[in-house]
Structure formats: structure tokens, C-alpha cells
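#random but structural
TW: two for the price of one
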Amino acid sequence: MIIIPVATRQELDACLAIRMEVFVNEQQVPFEEELDEYDVSPEACHHVLMTDGDKPVATGRWKVYEDGTAKLQRIAVLKEYRGGGTGRLLMEALEDSARQAGMKRAILDGQCHAEGFYKKQGYQTISTEPFLDAGILHVRMVKEL
């Protein structure tokens, strides 16, 4: 697996293609809810792309949420790459990127079905109740970096 800090439009487009497959096609998130201002360019936030050789297989991004806190978002792994450590490697890459930028903690809004995965990565649930985002139940989670 190769971790790529996204720097080109082509790399960003590969990230967006993964997200379209996972969120729009697989999970039925409306297309217009998937893209936002952080997807307009590689510089809009910190995108990470993971490839298996030349094949894009996973992506995520982070942005500064508040002083010293990174918000991890749009974490997606193609279905055939789930369960084999790809997600863990992606999370480590996102956290390393945030840590190198001076972030002290990370938060994320994880889908409830993935809460156990994030707990294994060291995240703690801090929301008292699940909440809807794009029609899918989520919980807010945090981890000290």
C-alpha cells in the first residue's frame, strides 16, 4: 500500500471517485451532500489517498476544527479492501499528517456501524446520542494524538 498526501487534481479526483463509490453508490448518500468546499482543490484541506500499486483504494481528509484539533472526515475504503488492515493504515496516515501539522487531538463523526473499528484505533465516543448525517446514524469520537 502506498500513502499519498494529495497534491494534484488527479490525486484529488481519485479520492473523489472512491468516495462516490462508497458513499453515493454503496450507501446512497445524495451526490450533492457528498461534495463540499473542501473538495474544490488539493489545497482546500488535507486529503490522503491510499493506493494498492496504481489502484486507488482508500481515502480520507482532515481539516483544522479548532485550535489544536483536527477533524477527520470522508474516510472511505473500497469494499474489497475492508477488513484487511487498509482502514487502520489510512487512519494512521491521517493522524500522522495532523500530528505533523501540530494537531494535538482528532475528532470524527463516525457511522455507528463503524464505531467498533474506530474504538480499536483508540477513539472514544463523546456524543451522548447518535445523530443523523446524510441520512446515516453517526457518533462523535475523539482521540488524543
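TW: number two ↓
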Amino acid sequence: MKTTGYQTKQYAIPTKRYCQTLDLIDDPKLIEAYVERHGESRAWPEIREGIRSVGILEMELYILGNRLFMIVETPLDFDWDEAFTRLATLPRQQEWEDYMSVFQNAAAHATSAEKWKQMERIFRLYD
């Protein structure tokens, strides 16, 4: 467990953040394989390029047990639905979704937008 925290990027433009969750199948071997496939050397370059090409500045995944938490940072004018509709049409994107689906507690051929559930912020340290 990392106890020193995670450094965040600073952008020259105003940004917004989306937080999502998805559950993996609760099987330690499957979870280990899922984590390995998201390692820097194992994630497909086309998927990383596609994510950036639709306007996403940063995407992070965190895990606790079989629960995933994703943080997506975007410019203020980012349109989530439009971007993920476009992302689903990019080369190898559906192949990646199918490749990951064996680990995820979701419909087998669901798109990323169908699998990941948007979370609602309920607290922050208000100014």
C-alpha cells in the first residue's frame, strides 16, 4: 500500500474530474491478471492514444479488493457522452473491451460507457 500519496498533474487550463466505479469478478487470480494487463508495459498503445484523442487529459485506476475506482480529468468543455461514443468507434477499442470483459462483473460485450458507473460527489472540503 502506498502511504506517500500520488502526485497529480497541473494543467494550464481549467479542468473537471469524473469518478467512476466498476466491480471485477471476485477471483484473486483474475484480479491479479487484470492488474497486470493494465501495467504500463502491457496496456495497448492504441487504447492509450484513443483515450487521449477524445480529449481526456488523465485517467487513473485504483483498486480495493474487486472494486475499481477510476478518475478521469478533462478540460471544462469536455462532453462525456460525445467523447465515449467516439471512443467506442476507435481502432481496437471494442477488442480491448472484450479482452477485459472476462474480468469484469458486466455484460460481455458492453462498451466502456455501459460498464463503468458514474459516481456522484457527496462531500468536499468547501472553501
